[in-house]
Design a protein that fits this description.
Its main location: cytoplasm. Pfam families: DHDPS (PF00701). Helices cover 46% and strands 13% of the residues. It is α/β, with parallel strands linked by helices. The chain has a single domain, classed as TIM Barrel (Alpha-Beta Barrel), CATH 3.20.20.70. The protein has an 8-stranded parallel barrel with strand order 1-2-3-4-5-6-7-8, surrounded by 5 helices. It starts with a strand and ends with a helix. The relative contact order is 0.14.
């Protein structure tokens, strides 16, 4: 359903942590102009963990309004409460999002049966297309291929963002479910390998600062132009690493700030990028030709 470079958009904030709507508008326009293939609003990179329910719905709705149908919008609506995930997913649908991205329930460590019933319940309650999101390093649970295969039979579950860090897991998902749902990479350093293996794109942190390059890399990889994709990815390699020198979205928010698109506001418990990392992120941006 979705293809290419889907930016996991930051939520720009003022120094006091309030949402910066003017910067949000600039970012939406930036990504449309630079060729991003979709925008994911209020995912992990969008600080979903520290936006309250009303803010969460507000940002999703405003991004849809700002985009005006020019680019697909995917709302991040996952929660460790099935009831809250349903409520947020309904909010995304009513706000005009084209799909929802649902992270696995974090902290409470459900069983595989619990994971299946959680995603089944959200899909049955809200008919919007839904993309599963597996990121064990953050959630303390792992959505296994057997469970994904069961969920792939649900008509409005259309994809999975796989961020377990294991390319062999992607191969297994493609083999088991590739004909039913799309597989997207959730770790930028592995985007190229996943797309060349049969993935349909990337939900990308790097695209916040390098949207044109990420779009072109994904386009080339999806077209089977591996040499061109590898050439572009080589320009992005340092960014893929340095944007994770501290917990996402700390480094990428600083990178967006250096591009002049937003301020440095970020909410506790996240803190601004440590000064000793500034130079490495700056050099990675220069290597990519962004500055």
């Amino acid at each position: 359903m979705f293809r290419g470079s889907m930016v996991a958009l930051i939520t720009p904030m003022h120094d006091d942590g309030s949402i910066d709507e003017k910067a949000l508008q600039r970012l939406v326009e930036f990504h449309i102009e630079q060729g991003s293939d979709a925008i994911v609003a209020v995912g992990t990179t969008g600080e979903s963990a520290t936006l309250d329910y009303d803010e969460h719905c507000h940002v999703m709705r405003r991004v849809v309004e700002m985009a005006r149908g020019r680019i697909p919008i995917i709302g991040g609506t996952g929660s460790n409460s099935t009831w809250e995930a349903i409520k947020l997913t309904r909010c995304a649908m009513e706000g005009g999002c084209d799909a929802a991205l649902l992270v696995t329930p974090y902290y409470n460590k459900p069983t595989q049966e619990g994971l299946f019933r959680h995603f089944e319940a959200v899909a049955e309650a809200v008919p919007i297309p839904q993309i599963l999101y597996n990121v064990p390093s953050r959630t303390a649970c792992d959505l296994l291929p057997d469970t994904v295969a069961r969920l792939a039979d649900i008509s409005n579950i259309v994809g999975i963002k796989e961020a377990s860090g294991r390319v062999e897991r992607v191969h297994e998902l493609l083999e088991r479910c590739g004909g039913q749902i799309d597989v997207y990479c959730g770790e930028d350093i592995k985007d190229l390998a996943v797309i060349l293996a049969g993935g349909k794109g990337a939900i990308s942190v790097t695209a916040n600062v390098a949207p044109r390059l990420m779009h072109e890399m994904c386009r080339a990889a999806l077209a089977g132009e591996s040499a061109e994709a590898e050439r572009i990815d080589a320009r992005l390699a340092a960014l893929h690493k340095t944007l994770f020198v501290e917990t996402n979205p700390i480094p990428v928010k600083w990178g967006v700030y250096r591009l002049g698109l937003a301020g440095q506001g970020i909410r506790l418990p996240m803190t601004p990028l440590s000064e000793h990392h500034h130079e490495s992120v700056l050099q990675a941006m220069k290597l990519a030709g962004l500055l």
